[in-house]
Design brief:
Tyrosyl-Transfer RNA Synthetase; 324 residues; 2 domains; 3-stranded parallel β-sheet; Rossmann fold
Amino acid sequence: MRKRVLSGIRATGRLHLGNYLGAVKGMIELQNNPSYQCLYMVADAHTITTPYDPKQLSDNRKEIIIDYLASGLDPQKSILFIQSQIPEHFELTYYFSSIVTIARMQHLPTYKEKVKQYPQNNTMALLNYPILMAADILVYKANLVPVGADQEPHLEVAREIGRKMNQLFKTDFPEPIRFATKGEYIPSLKGEGKMSKSVEGSYINLTDSFDEIRKKIRSIPTATTAGGPLIGGLKTLFILGQIFLSSTDYQNFKNQYNQGNLQFSQMKDTLAQVIYEELKSFQERRKEIEKNEDYVNEVIKEGAIRAREIASQTLKEVKEKMGF
């Protein structure tokens, strides 16, 4: 039996460089490995746990599917679907919520962070986020979840729920584990935290023009003089340099920095040019795909059908064993 993989990206906007390097490239590697069956969703229901614009949410759902396709995710090899089109996720969330305490959810560090960030939006949806995530994973009995290390507390909740369901109701849920992929942490252009769609000015969209990319790279906060420890924006600049620049160019810039004579503007403009060149093929593929609306709609429709075939069987098993 192939191991099953489940991952998703929130529908808060088009994919950015951090999504691509930190998630999508790893997702592509997995889909091309015959040992895995991959399901990749647009996590639109998770998007409404924090303030959002309904019109943007509606648009973003399809835009992310187009980004997935342009990046190289193949609907013949992977199941690409939109979370909210699979009602089994939400019904299973409710059943799972009957075995999880409020206190357990309130103690999660991610929940506390979001409450601090959005004190006026401390909703039940936010509190239940990890239970919905557990349902996302376990409704497909997924073994592997390629997400960042910051999601490990949520994965532990999914494992706890699976174990408890197995103990109480004799279900057969696996214990999902985080599957780390290369380059999973891409720093924010602001010099603090990771690249995130929820932090304006922290990210480069995959669809950005050269001028937009150059402007954003130039905005990375750096020192007035070179030399010293790489912290904040300096660290971001050199991490991106290590990822995108040739080893020769990167080492030259690093040597100039250590010698105290690096021209930051030169390194930034060189980096911007290389990033833009890297994204050109993606942008060209994307333009072709978005012209074919019928194809995109068919991918979404077919993905929902295939995902529901699996999810409905799991839900049927759970309901029977819980006495429904």
